[in-house]
TrEMBL record:
<protein>
    <submittedName>
        <fullName>Protocatechuate 4,5-dioxygenase beta subunit</fullName>
    </submittedName>
</protein>
<keyword id="KW-0560">Oxidoreductase</keyword>
<dbReference type="GO" id="GO:0008198">
    <property type="term" value="F:ferrous iron binding"/>
</dbReference>
<keyword id="KW-0223">Dioxygenase</keyword>
<dbReference type="InterPro" id="IPR004183">
    <property type="entry name" value="Xdiol_dOase_suB"/>
</dbReference>
<dbReference type="Pfam" id="PF02900">
    <property type="entry name" value="LigB"/>
</dbReference>
<feature type="domain" description="Extradiol ring-cleavage dioxygenase class III enzyme subunit B">
    <location>
        <begin position="8"/>
        <end position="270"/>
    </location>
</feature>
<dbReference type="GO" id="GO:0016702">
    <property type="term" value="F:oxidoreductase activity, acting on single donors with incorporation of molecular oxygen, incorporation of two atoms of oxygen"/>
</dbReference>
Length: 279
């Protein structure tokens, strides 16, 4: 049967992809951020996952404000990173995993989640930057990826509890899949940041660190925060914590934290990185 081996959290801001493209990871501005990833890369090299279930949000590339599903999942054999206008060189396509993807979709519908199933799907930095961070040199082609996209742009947005429960249902699907696969789960985005308006540049480090503490073995305590609370406490883009909660829902009740890193500011963002091993 398929096995869930762990979860990883990471920022996915497009400036990271540009830093990689320009080869400036060792400059003073970027080095404290990129220094958080070698331990995770080492773990991935040892565990050799077959599949990544990747929670992310689309930034107006595949889904714009006129059509914004709450939850959508890709079932395509391949995903192309479309041009976002950041001056970043084209990177290789992402390999999909169709069989497990369809199994997850069937399970979610049975569990009464209304999802949008995408047999074709353009992806942006929300999905590609995490892969570039984990497999330097764009060496992610051997990994099969299942994109799980959560609406974090257009109100109304799902609650932290709903996203956590989405993860629980995905876990049920993975653990009932009758192939021997090692699956790792990525929760991307965040943490606190606001990119526009009167509070542009807002970062709430105490709130970020509290969320990182709770996500380990007390994720249910975060259910108390509504989407409005997240906007107030973590900025307009703070609801990206939903992707972390989706990831955490896929893991078992107790996990072991193997590594974490937190650095601010990176492109006006509180960037948190964690490695959680499933028990």
């Amino acid at each position: 049967m398929a096995k869930i081996i762990g979860g990883i959290t990471t920022s996915h801001i497009p400036a990271i992809g540009r830093a990689i493209s320009l080869n400036i990871e060792e400059t003073p501005y970027w080095k404290p951020f990129f220094d958080g990833y070698p331990p995770i890369r080492k773990w991935l090299g040892e565990k050799k996952p077959d599949v990544v279930v990747l929670f992310y949000n689309d930034h107006g590339l595949e889904f714009f404000l006129n059509k914004k599903p709450t939850f959508s999942i890709g079932v395509a054999p391949q995903y192309i990173s479309a041009d976002e206008g950041w001056g970043i060189a084209t990177i290789p396509p992402v390999t999909g995993e169709t069989e497990l993807s369809w199994h997850i979709c069937n399970t979610l519908v049975e569990d009464e989640f209304d999802i949008t199933i995408c047999q074709e799907m353009k992806v942006d930095h929300g999905l590609t930057v995490p892969l570039q961070l984990m497999w330097p040199g764009n060496t992610y082609g051997h990994i099969k990826v299942i994109p799980v996209c959560i609406n974090c742009e257009q109100h109304p947005m799902p609650s932290l509890k709903r996203c956590f429960n989405l993860g629980r249902s995905i876990a049920k699907a993975i653990e009932s899949f009758d192939k021997d696969l090692n699956v790792v789960v990525f929760g991307t985005g965040g943490l606190s940041h606001q990119l526009d308006g009167q509070r542009a540049g807002f970062i709430n480090k105490p709130f970020d660190l509290m969320c990182m503490d709770k996500i380990v073995n007390q994720p249910e305590e975060l259910f108390q925060y509504s989407v409005r609370d997240l906007v107030e406490q973590a900025g307009a883009q703070g609801p990206e914590l939903n992707m972390w909660m989706g990831m955490r829902g896929v893991l078992s009740g107790k996990v072991t934290e193997l590594h974490r890193n937190y650095h601010i500011p990176i492109s006006n963002t509180g960037a948190g990185t964690m490695l959680l091993e499933n028990n």
